[in-house]
Amino acid sequence: MCASTKKKLQDKLREALKELDQLDKRLQEKAEYGPGKGDPAIYEWELTLALRQQAQAKVETARRTLQRLAEGRYGICERCDAPINPERLEIIPLASLCIKCARASQR
Ligand SMILES: [Zn+2]
To answer: What is the pLDDT of residue 42?
Structure first.
């Protein structure tokens, strides 16, 4: 796969790491509120925590995708080994499943 793909994935990783960092900072600021009982900030705190988990997952996906690129397996479905539609990869560079498997896993 071409160098621009690698750059695109590295950008995604950087983006995700930045997001994670920002969420960590927000969680630290909110640490004094904590998950206290009846605290009005709890909802926001939990939301931030959920977003942090999503960002963490994105970082891991980006790292794994870069690893797959290095192994020459980028763009190949992790489940059925079918090539992933290039248009799908264009929209979702971190896609690890072909459209068929992605749909099946959402069920
Ligand atoms: Zn598949």
So the answer is: 76
Which H or E run contains 107? none
Q: Which two tokens stand for residue 15?
A: 């983006």
The pLDDT of residue 44 is 82
Residues that place a CB less than 5 A from ion ligand 1:
77, 79-80, 82, 98, 101
The CB-side HSE value for 75 (13 A sphere, CA atoms) comes to: 13
Among residues 21, 86, 96, the alpha carbon closest in space to that of 66 is found at 96
Q: How far is the CA of 76 from the centre of ligand 1 (A)?
A: 8
Please name the helix (run of DSSP H) or strand (run of DSSP E) that holds residue 27, with its range, or none: helix 3-29
pLDDT tens per residue across span 80-93: 999 999 999 999 99
d(CA 94, CA 91): 9
Domain edges within the chain = 1-74, 76-107
